[in-house]
Specification:
The structure is a single chain. The protein is built from 13 helices and 9 strands. It has 298 residues and is α/β, with parallel strands linked by helices. It has 2 domains: 161 residues, NAD(P)-binding Rossmann-like Domain (Rossmann fold, 3-Layer(aba) Sandwich), CATH 3.40.50; 116 residues, N-(1-d-carboxylethyl)-l-norvaline Dehydrogenase, domain 2, CATH 1.10.1040.10. The chain has a 6-stranded parallel sheet, with helices on both faces. Strands 7-8-9 form a 3-stranded mixed sheet. Helix 7 links the parallel strand 8 and strand 9. The protein starts with 9 loop residues before the first strand and ends in a 5-residue tail after the last helix. The N terminus is likely disordered.
């Protein structure tokens, strides 16, 4: 990668629910930004929305972006999507390029991609994020990073455009390992909160007062604070698609099997989200889990 004092073009691949606002924040850096999205209409919308907020170009193809950019961020939904993107970038990458991945993938996926990039003298950083769509929009995400310390330090000025905390967890793949732990906790908290609120609802407790008193004590947590009112109002606008948490928990299950661990909560949560997906709620926020606790899903 070029000296950080020099101006270089930054690429961003994947303008989904998280990637779209993250890429928007990057426009506040001093670097020209080039974006690419599988659905070109989304790239066009992004260009129209952010045209006056920085140096912005839309790449017509991934090799074009690879040739132009010295730091490339990726943010996609699935491991195979990431492999496909890397395969298209590889032949055109310039030696020294850094690829920083904000997707949630298996740790082994990060290791495989790192090996492929090392073969062409490029660098890889796995940097999954936490904080949801709200955190992406506000620029307050927490980033769990795996990779070489020197490389992470080089791209940190870019990461700080949209993160409130950058934590290096160790070498490549430790960012994804940390995210797996995070997702187990997210799933467990969602199970507990939705079950508790379904119980409260049956007992006809006053919702507003209940959330206030619970939030002020030991039971207070981010999920209840941000999703309590909406789930009790039966509103599930996407914050984090439950189909994606179902996918993430599959990664956690595989890790547990390899480590000879039985993660009962993960198995229960994954089964609950499978039922919700079968009921047509895969695109709903994970707080739609309350429908199972309320007995609304067969």
């Amino acid at each position: 990668m070029q000296n950080t004092a020099e101006k270089f073009t930054v690429g961003f691949i994947g303008l989904g629910a998280m990637g779209y606002p993250i890429a928007g924040h990057l426009l506040h850096s001093d670097s020209p930004i080039q974006v690419w999205n599988r659905t070109s209409a989304v790239s066009a919308r992004f260009q129209a929305e952010y045209a006056n907020q920085g140096e912005l170009q839309v790449a017509s193809a991934l090799p074009e972006l690879a040739t132009a950019c010295r730091v490339i961020f990726t943010c996609v939904s699935a491991d195979q999507d990431l492999f496909n993107i890397i395969d298209q970038l590889l032949p055109a990458l310039v030696a020294g390029t850094v690829i920083c991945d904000h997707s949630t993938t298996a740790p082994d996926t990060a290791r495989q991609i790192n090996k492929s990039l090392q073969a062409v003298q490029c660098h890889f950083v796995d940097a999954p994020v936490s904080g949801g769509v709200e955190g992406a929009r506000r620029g307050t995400l927490v980033t769990m990073v795996g990779g070489e310390k020197a490389i992470i330090e080089q791209i940190s000025p870019l990461l700080t455009c949209y993160t409130s905390k950058i934590a290096r967890m160790g070498p490549v793949s430790t960012g994804q390992a940390t995210k797996a732990v995070n997702q187990v906790m997210v799933a467990g908290i969602a199970e507990a909160v939705t079950e508790a609120l379904a119980l409260a609802e049956k007992m006809e407790l006053p919702a507003g007062q209940l959330l206030e008193v619970l939030g002020g004590g030991a039971a207070g947590n981010w999920f209840m604070a941000h999703r309590g009112k909406t789930m009790l109002a039966d509103e599930f606008e996407v914050g984090f698609k439950l189909s994606l948490l179902h996918k993430d928990l599959g990664i956690c299950e595989e890790l547990a099997r390899n480590l000879d661990l039985d993660l009962h909560l993960v198995r229960q949560a994954r089964e609950d989200y499978r039922r919700l997906m079968e009921a047509g709620e895969g695109d709903s926020d994970i707080s739609a889990l309350i429908h199972i606790k309320q007995g609304k899903i067969d």
